[in-house]
Q: What sequence folds into this?
């Protein structure tokens, strides 16, 4: 099975019109689950944004290494909070996937297990990728902070350019994943048709 199925399976959970995961025709349940997760994600991001703004106020009067250490500590705290939040979402998604698959009579047990196993594998890969990106970001920021040849303004511009570039890359990556999900989903539906026909 394709290594990028995690994204595809995760998307499949949230596609209300999809008969594969609609079980007893309860597409509304999938839609509500997705909406709830979106609202929780938005609230979490807002909370972290507020905490960051409040933290900035505590930096007044701090300079040099003291300020750098405080920033690093705050960044690590928020990173830990994000990881915990993402783990909770993953656990919810997995439980929801298992619940929806248990109601599905059109897939074999082997196909269901394959989907769940791939869901777990892709989550691990996604976590590894996120950790690698974080390490890259920290290394970049430390390099800029320790570069005495740059003025404060040049450092700010370098950081701004770096994050703008990264944001653009993530947007392209999301579009690519969306297209992969669409084509994989079509292939998976076609491959599961023999099971569907025997189930009827």
A:
């Amino acid at each position: 099975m394709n290594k990028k199925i995690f994204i595809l399976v995760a998307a499949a959970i949230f596609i209300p019109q999809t008969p594969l995961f609609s079980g007893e025709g309860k597409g509304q349940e999938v839609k509500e689950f997705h909406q709830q997760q979106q609202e929780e994600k938005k609230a979490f991001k807002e909370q972290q944004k507020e905490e960051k703004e409040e933290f900035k106020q505590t930096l007044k009067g701090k300079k040099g290494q003291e300020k750098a250490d405080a920033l690093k500590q705050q960044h690590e705290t928020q990173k830990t909070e994000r990881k915990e939040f993402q783990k909770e979402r993953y656990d919810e998604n997995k439980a929801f996937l298992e619940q929806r698959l248990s109601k599905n009579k059109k897939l074999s047990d082997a196909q269901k297990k394959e989907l769940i196993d791939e869901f777990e594998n892709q989550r691990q890969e996604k976590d590894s990728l996120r950790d690698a990106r974080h390490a890259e970001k920290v290394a970049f920021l430390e390099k800029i902070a320790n570069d005495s040849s740059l003025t404060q303004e040049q450092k700010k511009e370098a950081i701004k350019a770096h994050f703008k570039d990264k944001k653009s890359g993530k947007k392209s990556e999301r579009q690519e994943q969306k297209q992969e999900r669409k084509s994989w989903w079509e292939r998976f539906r076609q491959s599961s048709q023999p099971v569907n026909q025997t189930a009827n």
